[in-house]
Amino acid sequence: MSETPADTRIPRLAVGCRVRTVSPDEAMLLVPEGALKLKGSASEIISLIDGQRSVEAITIELQQKHATTDSSQITAEVKQFLDKLHARSVLLYND
After folding, report:
1. How far, in Å, CA of 58 to CA of 46, rounded?
2. Fewest CB atoms within 10 Å of the CB: 34, 37, 61, 81?
């Protein structure tokens, strides 16, 4: 059985996008065309995007924090969320 290769891409918010923390479990992602309300795992993921951590590092940190949750579920959630932001040009990757 082969392992999935590490996702070493480093996500960062696009120019003009920023995060405003509303509460520990809620944040607003302010984008040029409006705002996205982020709760739960979305808020946690966005809080870890700092232009330094790779997708893999973000995933590992969340897996350690939520050790009782299936790690493959966390991996899938992180990937799906980041893919959605990337498709909307809110998130870019440093390679």
Report:
1. 9
2. 34
Task: Output phi, psi for 20, to 5 deg.
Answer: -120, 120
In CATH, what number is assigned to the domain containing residue 44? 3.90.930.60
Cα separation, 44 vs 59, in Å, equals: 11
In order along its 95 residues, the chain shows pLDDT tens digits of 445 577 999 999 999 999 998 887 789 999 998 999 998 899 999 999 999 999 999 999 999 999 999 999 999 999 999 999 999 999 999 86
In a domain, 3, yes or no: no
Report pTM.
Answer: 0.87
Q: Within the chain, what is the greatest distance between any pair of CA atoms?
A: 44
The residue range of the domain holding 53 is: 10-94
Environment class of 37 (CB within 10 Å of its CB; exposed 0-12, middle 13-18, buried 19+):
exposed
The number of distinct structural domains making up the chain is 1
